[in-house]
Give the backbone structure.
Amino acid sequence: MSDLIRVVLATHNPGKRREWVALLEGLSLEIVLPEEVGVALPVEETGGTYTENALLKARALVEASGLPALADDSGLEVDALEGAPGLHSARFRPGSDEVRYEALLRALDGLPEPDRTARFRCVAVLVLPDGRNFTTEGICEGLIAFEPSGERGFGYDPVFYVPTLDQTMAELPEAIKNQISHRAGAARKMRPILQAELGV
């Protein structure tokens, strides 16, 4: 494994790591979680934008580990809710993913399909030990479904409907999700940056 460049990913979520590993497949990277390099990640996301939050996490990781760090911050933006939950997607309601998406469905109760437009937005940040940083963004457009469907994915995936594929994000096979998701879009743009900066 010594020929792989280690990059620490700002998450404790194995599902998110699995996605990033798949999205960056083919690069000579070993994507590790903070706990695997003996680092805690108690970073409060106090930024006013996705970029600020991702930078907070990545910079803290670089400082603690000395390794290049990759962080992303993402959210669900619902037009009928003026872009909410947005930055606060993970904290929209206390409790499980299910509690949050059920609350979202209640907030949109009675709203017809044309008015249920929404998008997932992801900002990814790479911070290097020398302090330089690089930012990319990906967006996936869709609609909020009338009820949850699908067992895959996490977060709001069961209620995010992709009209072009006639499925929710939670119904899509991982390989398809990793082509069209907001994180896939950000990762696609991050790939050449990793290749250029880390020689992977």
